[in-house]
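Hello, quick one for you while I still have it in my head. I'm working through a protein record and want to make sense of it properly. Would you mind checking whether the tokens look sensible for this chain? I owe you a coffee for this, so here goes:
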Amino acid sequence: MEISEVKKIWSEVKGQLRDTIPAHAYYSWVDALEAAGFDDNEFSLLTVHMMAPQIVRQSYYSQISGAFEKIIGKKVDFSINYDADLAEKYKKEKKKEISKPRQSEDITENKAMENLAQMQSFSNLNLKYKFENFVVGENSRFAHAAAYAVSQNPAKKYNPLFIYGASGLGKTHLMQAIGHYIVFHKPKLKVRYIKTEEYVNELIKNLQHGGERNSRMDKFRQKYRNVDILLIDDIQFLESKTYTMEEIFHTFDSLHNNSKQIVITSDRLPKDIPTLPDRLRTRFEMGLVVDISTPDFETRVAILKNLADQISMKANFEVFEYIANNFVNNVRELEGAFNKVSAYADIEKTDLTIELARKVLNCEAMKKAVTIDKVAKAVGDYYGVSLADFLSSSRNQRVSGARHVAVYLSREMTQKSFESIAGFFNKKHTTMLYSYEKIKEDLKINKELDRTLSEIRTSLRK
């Protein structure tokens, strides 16, 4: 196709995109793209911004793809490549260009760049977590609706928003999607995301260092109180950390009293977090508490299809079905399995077929290899504890210690959900979570325990 025709198509596509992409994002990333060619059903674009290929594909892939289909009349692929020569030319032209005011509703390119810088540094957000690429299923429909409502009107309702569910189901994705939306659509608002474990470590660091401790603590407090939206991830790590709970309590009150939005995630309900004071628990529950559960088969397939679309990877339904049937516990392991097979396909320059998926994932062998009952037997043999002891309500130190290890290894080696593990051991889901977290923490300081787990793993793999 002649380059003049290619440029004409791109001009028409850009006309469509002005109505679907926020103005500040359009003028920052899309407007500067130049059409370079259209061959083999792939439209080639060049950019003057090094970050544009990643940002545009991650944030606006569906809008651009849809605009191409509308203008050309069929689905086409598109590539974006950074061009150093074009970038240099662009810089020179910018210096000569006389500044012209844009429409009043448009935000300048500089402002958009400031927003991006805020997202990556101040806000501490990950670019890939946004509402556009969150696959909504029956397991997450209510949580998604609540999160989107908060992003539209922060602190107007659902404050705080408390999202809970097992690990790897999308809590962090939804939380950061709120921040992502606000940074790009409400740039005057300050957003900050923090993992509870990082908050605790930062607090300890400020307390331990000598010198102007009071001054440091004032700065630390203002860092999390001088914001409009505070996103706190994995709040369950707060348990038993008395001083940190005190700080969180005062930060919560400061923000809430000043009509600032708070969003919290946890792997359990506030009432199920051990040692959490009533005054914190009631505050966490005073807004809206929503859960995300394990995705069903249809949702898992939709998630896999979405992952493939994001990287323009072609695969038939058999591949998605195979992965969805074998990785059922959470989205994280589902994504990990897909990334593994797509990486193999990319490296070997081959199609993503069902044969390749079976060869790479080898799910049949994995299923035969380790099960919860095999883990329980191996741990029981090591500690001299029977299965009946594991299933009993015994609080004997030897039995409970062995049970903690069995739960931890069951989770690590079978990737079964905590609900499944709880069902096997005839215990509550929260008890399994406690056992897992206890061993995880003990491993940080107990080298003997690490050796024990290694020996048990070895016995299971024989």
Notes: The domain at 370-461 is CATH 1.10.1750.10 (Chromosomal Replication Initiator Protein Dnaa; Chain: A;). The first helix runs from residue 3 to 17. Strands lie at 34-39, 42-47, 77-82, 161-164, 191-195, 229-233, 261-266, 288-291.
